[in-house]
Structures are given as structure tokens and as C-alpha cells.
Amino acid sequence: MNETFRMLATVLCTLLLAGSATANQIRIKDLVEFDGVRGNDLLGYGLVVGLNGSGDGLRNAPFTEEIMSNTLERLGVNVSGEQFRPKNVAAVLVTAALPPFARAGGRIDVTVSAIGDAKSLLGGTLVMTPLNAADGRIYAVAQGTVIAGGAAAQGDAGGVVQGVPTAGVIPAGARVEREIEFDFTSLTSLRLALREPDFTTAARIERAINRDFGRGVSVMLDAGTVHLDIAATQSRSPAHALGRVENILVQPERKARVVVDQRSGTIVMGDDVRISRVAVSQGNLTIRIQERPLAVQPNPFSDGRTVVVPRTDAEIIEEEGVGLAEVPEGASLSEVVAGLNALGVAPRDMIDILKSIKAAGALHAEFLVR
3-class SS at 22? Predict the structure, then answer.
């Protein structure tokens, strides 16, 4: 019975160690971009109609009137010399990303943003809008009902706005009309571009690919590039080779980094952050100034007047500190957090402490302030 229990415990420990060893492993497809396998940005200028009185004021946005006139004239409606001031129309910019290998007839999502003084795009419909790429050619056409990302209400004495009602999306709102010419099947080699260049990660990707194929099919060129010899993989096609490569697991190596957002007081620290032995103390100093003017009145029935005499109370209050807290040599992330929490400081005070530790040369990480 005891022997069975020991065997079971050994198996469980082995599984736990194996799980912890592979917990930080990431697929190559999540670490790199394949050279040539990329999307393209599209842009269009269109019109949203059907708004409930929240469209552009045509006196302030004359381009809305111009595009509306052009649209109606293409439909056979002559509006030359006419004066119209509808409030349910808004001029918008339409953006989208054409994914790699998109085929004609496929659908892609689009984002619609007002460029005039429209109050809201809620409930509007985007009229047929061509989407152009950087080469000026039309690759997709967008049309559909806009799903706005907010709401707005206005009254005589004020209003309220939640979210961004002047921007929205149309899921699958554009149809691909033209394919990007790219002969993927003729590739004999390909470059893998790391999203975060690092020599250690690139070397690990090289070893992982060669180990998976059992031969030398890849080589690291620099910190951000790994060359893949597709012909040496002996795969049926480049697509089969990449389908195998992108699912290989690799443990990436990242720089130790501390990211601070001063506006929201957010602090994010990576697991590799280390701090040398340092002592930290934190306290608050408050200066309080209070004005209490005193009115001095003359005696009754005297020929005098009331005078206001200024009186100021000023004091400096220094709150009792928590003493010095020592962070040991080579402290890990959890030890750093525990040490800072032991001081009982607020997140914004913690930002100042981290800045001071970095200035003292004890914080061994890249310190980014946003």
C-alpha cells in the first residue's frame, strides 16, 4: 500500500514538473511574423444615413453636402442649385484591414468614424463605400448598419455622453472585390520576423525547428530574423511547412521591464525584474494653510468703520513613517511586491519609490513611464 502511494506521488510530481516546464512555452506563430504573410490597410470616405437628427450640420461640414450631392446624382437625382439641410446624414472615414490570403467574395470587419460635427452614429447605415489600399486601387466595398460604441443624450440645460457614439463598427461589413497577387507556392525560403527581437529567443526558435524536422532547416540571421529553408523541410508545399512550424513550442526570453502609467497609477512588472539590496522608507509631509479673517468693528456711536484684519494659520504636519524596509539582494518580483506592500503605500507613491530605486541604480530592469 505504501509502495503504491509512493509510486502515485512520484507520477503526480513528474506531471507537475512537466506542466511547470511547459507552462511558459509559446507557439512560434504567436512570437513571429512570416515574411510575406501580412495584411493590408484599407481606407474609404463614405456617408452614413438614417441618423435620428444627430448628423452633421451642413453649414459646418460642407464636404458632407458635397458627397451627398454626388451620391444622389449617381442615382439619377439632380440636386444642382438645391438647398437641403438634412440632419440625419454624416460624413465618415471607413477603415479596415485586408487579411493575408483574402479571397474575392470574402467578408471583413470595418470601422466607421465621423469626421464632421455629428453627435452620434447610432442606428445609422453606411452607404456603399469603396475601400482603397496604398496603391490607390479598390480592394473591398463596405456597406451596412453601424453598431455605435456609445450613447449620448442632450437636454436644454446639459447632456451626458457614455462611450464614443461618433465611432462604430460593422461586423463583416465589407466584401472583398480584389485579391492581392502573391504566389506563395513558389517560395523556396522564408524569413521569420520576431515581434520582439531577442538573440536568445531567435536561437531557441532555430533549435526548436531543427529538432522538430530532424535536420538543419533554419538558421538565425540576427536578433529579429530566423531564415527557414522550405525546400530542406521536404514538405509537400510551403503551406504544409509553415503549418508545422507555427505550432512548435518555444520558451521566449524577454527583457526585464517595469511599465508605469502615471495617469491611472497602474504598475506592471515582469517576472524577471530584480532589485539589488536597498533600504526604502516612505512618509508623507502635509503643509496646511488656513485663512480666518477677523472683522474689527468700531465702538458704538463712534465715528469709525469696520475693518477686516487678515489672520492666517500655517502648519507643517509630518506623518509618522514606517521606518526603513529592506529589500534583499537579487529579490524576485514577489519579494519586491511584498516589500513595497509592507510599507503600506498607495500605487502612486509606489511609482515614486520605483523611480527612486531606479535612480539609485538598484532596479535592474527597463523602466518605461507612459
Answer: helix
